[in-house]
Amino acid sequence: MNLERAAKQLEAIGNPTRLRVYRALVRAGNNGLPVGRLQTKLGIPASTLSHHLQRLVATGLVTQERQATTLICRASYPAMNGLIGFLADECCADAGCVASEEEAVV
Length: 106
Hints:
single chain; 13% strand
């Protein structure tokens, strides 16, 4: 992952509403959630949800799949893991030490 992509993804989830949307999708697992259920779960207007989903899709953190008339949204776990890895991969690289397993869990 490059710095620009990581910055865009972090910016996307830096908004409280988008972070709530993203966390709900991460919790939903591989099945994802239909947009209508996601809207009900979060209690936000459809237009607001659509705006925030577009941003998450544009950064690759969320995927969408149409099943007949239902739009299913899913967290992209490879993208999420890539971002987490980007943040953690160089932990302590300049300090000449490796973070302990206990610190990495926190």
